[in-house]
Every structure is written in C-alpha cells, then in structure tokens.
Amino acid sequence: MQDQSIVSALLLGLLEGLTEFIPVSSTGHILLAGHFLGFESTGKAFEVLIQLGAILAILSVYFGRLWKLLVDLPRDGRTQRFVLGILVAFLPAAFIGALAHDFIKTVLFETPMLICVMLLIGGVVLLWVDRWALQPRYHDVMDYPLSLCLKIGLFQCLAMIPGTSRSGATIVGALLMGADKRSAAEFSFFLAMPTMAGAFAYDLYKNRDILSAADLPIIAAGFVMAFISAVIVVRFLLDYVSRHGYALFGWWRIIVGGAGMIALLMLG
Fold first, then answer.
1. Average pLDDT rounded to a whole number, residues 227-232
2. Is 179 helix (H, G, I), strand (E, B) or coil?
3. Do 141 and 268 meet the contact criterion of CB atoms below 8 Å apart?
4. Which of 39-43, 80-84, 122-126, 213-217 has the lowest mean pLDDT?
C-alpha cells in the first residue's frame, strides 16, 4: 500500500511541477488525478506541501535575478517599487486564503465536478483573451504601477476555487490590464514565490497535529518530482508564450475538464 502511495505521489509531483506555472491549474489537475487514482492525503496537505518543490525550482532558475534585486533593494527606487508591488499583489490572496482556508480544503477541494467546470470556463476565457487584439502598455515587470499590481492580486483571489489556476488568473488579469504576454507570465512567476510559500507555511501549521512520520516519504517523493519538472517548465515557458501565446493551454484545459466531467458522470 505504501509503495502504491509513493508511485502515486511521484506521478502527482510530476504533474504539479509541469502545471504549476502554466495557466491550467496544477491543483485542479492533482485533485482530479488523485480522485481517479484513489489517492488520499492527510488533511489534503500533500497537494499544497509539494508546492515547495515548485517554489525552490523558480528560486533556483531566478537566483541571479533575485540576488540582484536583493543587492539593489536598499538604494534603488525602481527595485523598491517592484518589491512593494509584489507585496501589494500578494496581500489580497493571503487575507482571503487565511479566512477561507477550511472551506477551501473541506468543500472546494472535495468537489471534482466543480474543478472540471472551472477548467472548462478558464479554457474558454484563456482562448478569448489570447485571440483578443489587446494593445499592451506594460512590457517590463519592473515598471508595473502599484495600481496594476493590486488588480492582478485581486484576480489571483479567483484561484481559491480549484480548477481556476493561480497563474491563469494572474496572467489573464495582467493581460486585461495592459501587460504584454511575456511580462504577464514573468510577474506571475514572481508573485508565485510569496503566495506559494505563504500557502505552504500556513497549511503546514494548520495540519501540524495530524501529519505523521508516515506522511513524510509520500510528501518528499512528490516534492522531488515537482522540483525537477518545474525547473524544466520555468526555463522554457517565457520564450514559448512570447512566440505562441496561451491558446495551447486554453485547449488543454477544455480537453482535461471535458474528459474529467465525462469520467465523473460515467464512473462517479
């Protein structure tokens, strides 16, 4: 039984890393896959805690950029404004996530049909936005005004509903507010760091009394696979969306959401 759980954790960790930073909803994919695999984690903590692998992946890929930001922060006004913008964008989701944590984990996470519906809706929205001839005004994340950062942060709150996608919500929000495709994805990367780290820390705290040593190998397996696959995605995603946009991810959401809905109706 433990071996089966490890195999499932490896598969789900791979899925987490591949989908965390693209606008298809990693949580939605993991919850649906876990449902059909019969995978149950303690307190639904696995699905959140393995995000640490994706966090470390983006930290490793962006280490040079992050180090420069840290060095420039005390003396460079542009860097200070950017870091403040990330904080402003992070706060709405942090506030709502803390208030609604139990409802999200016990109700929304346990409703696979809702996940399929949100995947379908998000796919249609992504295709619509990708085809809309928007005229971007912002091309560099370092120049995003604080008002834009706040609006993107409010869009991120939609991702409390599994199947919506944190990266999808922030990218669509940024595009609608005047960002170009590459900088929208890059801002989503930076915003992911405090958002996912905060979710990890809060979920670990909330589940501290029910997690046991038996859960550690399963979480560790998922974490390692999430890290490896997320590194690959982060290295190539910006160049891909700059050339091809987001249509592929919109169609992928529609296919997965539709297939999941059919499977749930047929199999339960």
1. 92
2. strand
3. no
4. 39-43
Q: How many residues does the chain have?
A: 268
Q: Annotate 195-226 with b (16+ C-beta within 10 A) or e (fewer).
A: bbeebbeebeebbeeebeeebeebbbbbbbbb
- The domain containing residue 183 runs over which residues? 2-267
Q: What single letter denotes the amino acid at residue 226? A: A
Question: Could you give the angle at which helices 181-206 and 77-106 cross, rounded to 10 degrees?
Answer: 50
Mean pLDDT of the 6-30 span: 89
- The pLDDT value given to residue 3: 55
DSSP secondary structure code for residue 132 in this structure: S
Query: CB neighbours of 177 closer than 8 A, spacing ≥ 6?
Result: 148, 151, 152
Cβ-in-10-Å burial (0-12, 13-18, 19+) of 264 comes to middle
Count of domains forming the chain: 1
